[in-house]
């Protein structure tokens, strides 16, 4: 089911909310910055995975 943005998804889906809260705060904040592009739990997970990869890359090369 698609929602209008991340905030609506989190209000309506407890599993999406639990997933978001399981992530590091830095990733959570970045996801909120991209709220208008996240409409489903699948998109939430995809965006989170991408941000985690970027974070790992930059932690290797300060």
Number of strands: 0
Summarize the amount of helix as a percent range.
over 70%
Largest sheet data: none
Structural class: mainly alpha
Question: CA-to-CA gap between the ends?
Answer: 39 Å
What letter string, H or E per element, gives the SSE order? HHHH
Identify low-pLDDT runs.
none
How would you sum up the global shape?
elongated
Helical segment tally?
Answer: 4
Radius of gyration: 12 Å
Quaternary structure: single chain
> How much strand content do the residues show?
under 5%
Mean pLDDT: 94
Keywords:
62 residues; elongated
General description of the model:
With 62 residues, the chain is mainly alpha-helical. It has helices spanning 6-12, 14-21, 25-33, 41-60. The longest helix is centred in the last third of the chain and has 20 residues, at 41-60.
Give a brief outline of the structure.
By secondary structure, the protein is mostly helical. Helix content is 71%, strand content 0%. The chain has four helices and no strands.
Outline the fold blueprint.
Layout: H1 6-12, H2 14-21, H3 25-33, H4 41-60
Helix pairs in contact: 1-2, 2-4, 3-4
């Amino acid at each position: 089911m698609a929602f209008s943005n991340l905030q609506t998804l989190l209000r309506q889906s407890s599993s999406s909310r639990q997933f978001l809260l399981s992530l590091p705060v830095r990733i959570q904040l970045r996801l909120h910055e991209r709220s208008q592009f996240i409409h489903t739990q699948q998109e939430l997970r995809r965006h989170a995975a991408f941000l985690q990869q970027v974070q790992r890359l930059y932690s290797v090369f300060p």
